[in-house]
Structure to design on (391 residues):
């Protein structure tokens, strides 16, 4: 199924191996506050160290403006990594240039070097060949293990593959296998659950999933645009006016396979302690907004989920960050966790929601990549993967 070479298919012993990881983790006051992505990269790093390679890690972090910015430094991540492993972790103040070249040159087998944020150079996002070549010059082999960045053709994800033998890491392989199988060869019935704020980014996903899934359960702010297409007054609810027409077309072409909430939770304010009302779907009063799916919807969706063979979920069912509007998302999380289906949760907010529910260990696969998993659900090829050597 996954037809790219991995680190198991090539010789890495004694080699300098440049690994693109996704260390784009949240950092508060210089301390890593969620280490999921760092831990997810460990199998690849450990394999390379166990096979006597010298490992050079590169990643982006946040959205620096193109120059060096202390708050986006990967140094705290390197320090954190050092607490997880028993081999030496070095750090270079730049990802290319003298600092990187010297540190990479001095690196020994069995050691790791973490390079500073690739996005401290504007050339990274421009996929500049010169930057890619400089990165490549640090190593003998390139490994892409950054699933979360694989949908971007940048110097460290795509450009570099033009200058080095390039293969996938274990995280990349695992992500593509689970998501790819769910989409291309799902155990039927295949049920997709889509939520989140905006429908705009997910129209391609809905269109592609309609060719594969038996049922698509819609929740979150996204449902509002479908309600607008059906002609409901929606009060102050979030609506994507530019997408109403395409929402109407989707409703027509999908028929009963696209399910919308039958009841909703509304409020005048999005804040803890706000007065809420639960109502069957109908005209929303002025000044009120739809902020969650209601209990009857959770019950109906749970029945569909219970019969599924494969479930893919992306996006919360409501404003789950506020406890008053979290019940819908939690209810769906419980239903997905309780099902016997192969369940895959696409990155970002839905992962935060499943972790908040304490049910993460009941899910078959939780993706580390939001944007990348959405592009896979849309049926698009990821440039960072396409560029790797075929088996
Ligand atoms: P996304 O990044 O598109 O998956 O959107 C996630 C965000 O959607 C979360 O932060 C939720 O608070 C938000 N969201 C979910 N449902 C609604 C809603 N009904 N109205 C406004 N925002 C929502």
């Amino acid at each position: 199924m996954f037809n790219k070479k991995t680190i198991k298919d090539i010789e890495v012993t004694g080699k300098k191996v440049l690994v693109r990881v996704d260390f784009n983790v949240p950092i508060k006051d210089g301390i890593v506050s969620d280490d999921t992505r760092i831990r997810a990269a460990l199998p690849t790093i450990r394999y390379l160290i166990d096979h006597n390679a010298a490992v050079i890690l590169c990643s982006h972090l946040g959205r620096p403006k193109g120059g060096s910015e202390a708050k986006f430094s990967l140094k705290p991540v390197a320090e954190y990594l050092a607490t997880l492993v028993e081999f030496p972790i070095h750090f270079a103040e730049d990802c290319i240039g003298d600092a990187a070249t010297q540190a990479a040159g001095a690196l020994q087998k069995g050691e790791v070097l973490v390079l500073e944020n690739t996005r401290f150079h504007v050339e990274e996002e421009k996929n500049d060949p010169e930057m890619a070549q400089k990165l490549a010059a640090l190593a003998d082999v390139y490994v892409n293990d950054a699933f979360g960045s694989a949908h971007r053709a940048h110097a460290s994800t795509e450009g570099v593959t033009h200058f080095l033998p390039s293969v996938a890491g274990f995280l990349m392989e695992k992500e593509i296998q689970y998501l790819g199988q769910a989409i291309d060869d799902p155990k039927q019935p295949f049920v997709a659950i889509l939520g989140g704020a905006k429908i705009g980014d997910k129209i391609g996903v809905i269109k592609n999933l309609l060719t594969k899934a038996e049922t698509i359960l819609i929740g979150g702010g996204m449902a509002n645009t479908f309600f607008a297409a059906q002609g409901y007054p929606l009060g102050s609810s979030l609506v994507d006016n530019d997408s109403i027409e395409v929402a109407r077309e989707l409703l027509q072409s999908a028929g009963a396979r696209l399910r919308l909430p039958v009841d909703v939770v509304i409020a005048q304010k999005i804040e803890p302690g706000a007065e809420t009302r639960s109502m069957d779907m109908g005209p929303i009063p002025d000044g009120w907004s739809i902020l969650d799916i209601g209990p009857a919807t959770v019950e109906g969706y749970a029945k569909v989920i219970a019969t599924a063979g494969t479930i893919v979920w992306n996006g919360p069912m409501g404003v789950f960050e506020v406890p008053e509007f979290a019940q819908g998302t939690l209810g769906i999380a419980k239903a997905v966790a309780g099902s016997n289906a192969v369940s895959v949760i696409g990155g970002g907010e839905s992962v935060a929601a499943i972790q908040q529910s304490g049910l993460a260990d009941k899910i078959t696969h939780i993706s580390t990549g939001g944007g990348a998993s959405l592009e896979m659900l849309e049926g698009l090829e990821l440039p960072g993967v396409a560029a790797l050597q075929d088996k």
The longest strand covers residues 16-20. The mean pLDDT is 96. The chain has two domains: 7-173, 186-377. The longest helix spans residues 36-50.
